Amino acid sequence: MAKTTLTISSKNYSSWSLRGWLLAKFSGLEFEEVVTAPDDASARAEILLLSSSILVPCLRHDGATIWDTLAIAEYLNEVRPEAGLLPADRIRRAHCRSICGEIHSGFTTLRASLPVNLKGHFPGFKIWSRAQADIDRVCTIWRECLAESGGPFLFGERTMADAMYAPVVTRFMTYDVKLEPALAAYASTIMAMPEMQEWIEAAKAEPADIEELEVEY
């Protein structure tokens, strides 16, 4: 069998790479990382939100090539159902898919205004009203999920939803977004995961910076 690979771009800046990588880690699938340099044209377009077709991350496994993050999530759920990437209950499973779809296709102002930057920290960052509306919606999603599940993850146990929202957690940390206690506890749970700690350590070791994402306010 051909080796399993996951193509990713910058660990410091790429939200989509983080999602795909976490999904693969959550699934327990063994894979080899293939890193595309941030100065690669396609990787840069993905990170800077300049591409309508996002081809990173890309999972290659057992003859399949999957490059959309939700498609990766669903594929991994098929090949590794024991990992519990989706809740067992039909209604909760539908809810999980819905909020994953929402973060996958929406929150464009949040993405543009608060770009992922794990090495950055901007206390007192000015958040514009349209971005605040996106933040409020994310908080509503988290609040409802945690109230239903009791935590510590959105659906109690770790699912694809936690991988999909992990980059948002990092945005909130980077830009000093204030959270109510229950949501702050969830954010801390995500940041404390061994997988997140591994990713962040690697992100901080990256030598390359993308000037457009080094905001100063």
Description of the structure:
It is a single chain. With 217 residues, the protein is an alpha+beta fold. It has 2 domains: 5-83, 3-Layer(aba) Sandwich (Glutaredoxin), CATH 3.40.30; 90-199, Glutathione S-transferase Yfyf (Class Pi), Chain A, domain 2 (Up-down Bundle). It has 9 helices and 4 strands, in the order βαβαββααααααα. A 4-stranded mixed β-sheet has the order 2-1-3-4, covered by helices on one side. Strand 1, helix 1 (15-27) and strand 2 (32-35) form a beta-alpha-beta unit. InterPro entries: Glutathione-S-Trfase_C_sf, Glutathione_S-Trfase_N, Thioredoxin-like_sf. This is Glutathione S-transferase. Residues 4-84 form the GST N-terminal domain. Keywords: Transferase. One of its GO terms (biological process) is L-phenylalanine catabolic process.
List keywords for this structure.
217 residues; alpha+beta; Glutaredoxin; Glutathione S-transferase Yfyf (Class Pi), Chain A, domain 2; four-stranded mixed beta sheet; 9 helices; 4 strands; 52% helix; 7% strand; transferase; Glutathione_S-Trfase_N; maleylacetoacetate isomerase activity; Glutathione S-transferase; Glutathione-S-Trfase_C_sf
